[in-house]
Amino acid sequence: MQLKHHFSSGYRVSVPTDVKFDISSEFDDIAKYATHDQATFQLADYAQTARFVNKLEGDGIRGYDISGPTLEDVFLRLAEEVKADMQDTSVTTLQAGVSPKDMDGLPLSDVSSLEDKDL
Question: What pTM was estimated for this model as a whole?
């Protein structure tokens, strides 16, 4: 549950396209995706979803579906974060003039010290 809470991409509420209702200005910033038979609204969190559903029910709309974050959503978002972190690290590494191969925490080898030991 902690992963879903921290890394979820929110909730989706789907309403049939033949149902007409007025979305209040409170929900102007939410993403909306439409297909031939339904409109899907992407809501940020549980609280916003509850307000949206209360609005639907207040307008007499009962034919809606709610889907929460799936584990797939959570892991995809986590993978995106890790990828972004790795890209940030690569940029910082290149700016600092350090090779990503040198990022293993081990001291860089010095060829001259190997030559001094006749290796």
Answer: 0.56
